[in-house]
Structures are given as structure tokens and as C-alpha cells.
Amino acid sequence: MKTKIILGTFFAIASFSAHSASLYCSGEVEELAYHGNNKLMIKLSSMNRPVFFCSPDAEWTVPGTGYKTGKETCKTLYSTFLSAKISKTPIKTMLFDGDAVPATCSAWEPWKAASIRYYVI
User: Fold this and answer.
1) CATH code, 19-120
2) The pTM is what?
């Protein structure tokens, strides 16, 4: 009986937890944007929409991941992605994490945010 209660409690808690995912995307940087409340966005050629990825004024966190992006790292990411856009150098792989991350690169919903955990140019 005790095992049933513990398992029932576990499944009840698990069913209410947020969906968290990771996704690898690649391609050329098609869009690099600034949004008025100090957030930066990126869209690779394999993505259907741009996604918020950091803020140059504050530590960046998103629900569903423990990864954080600091202000200086955000500025470095932005300048790296700007250089890749200008030179048309493709991003070989970029790993996104968080609750808003879809199952495929072409399924992003509008105005979503993610953490960039890893990328290779």
C-alpha cells in the first residue's frame, strides 16, 4: 500500500512538471535582432522563427534549464553571431535548452526564449 501511495504521488507530480527540451539546429544566421526590452534574438536558416537567447543587461535564465548566460557572455555571443552573419559562415550546430524548445527547428512558436548551451561555427 505504501508503494502505491509513493508511486501515485510521483506520477501526480511528474504530470504537472513543465516540458523541458533540448534541440540542435544549424545553418546561416538569417536574423539577429534586438527587442526593445533589452533582449536579443537569433534565427538560423533551419528555423521558422527567431528566438530570444540573452540580454546584454542582465543574467539570462529560462524555465526548464539550469544554464545561465551572463551579460558579458551575451555580448560575446552577439558579436560572434553578427560576424557569422556578415561573413555568411554557417553555424554547424547550436544547442537550445528550455521549456519553450520545440521538437524540430522548424516548429518554434512566436516570441519564445531559450538558452544557448553550445554552438560550433
Assistant:
1) 2.40.50
2) 0.83
What is the arrangement of strands in the sheet containing 21-27, beginning at the earlier edge strand?
A: 21-27, 91-98, 115-120
Which strand (E) or helix (H) includes residue 7?
A: helix 2-16
Kindly list the domain boundaries of the chain, sorted by start residue: 19-120
Scored b (16 or more CB within 10 A) or e, 43-72 reads bbebbebbbbbbbbeeebebebbebebeee
Query: 61 by DSSP, 3-state: which?
Result: coil
The secondary structure element, H or E, covering residue 82 is: helix 71-87
Which stretches of the chain drop beneath a pLDDT of 70? Answer: 1-19
Q: Are 112 and 96 in contact (CB under 8 A)?
A: no
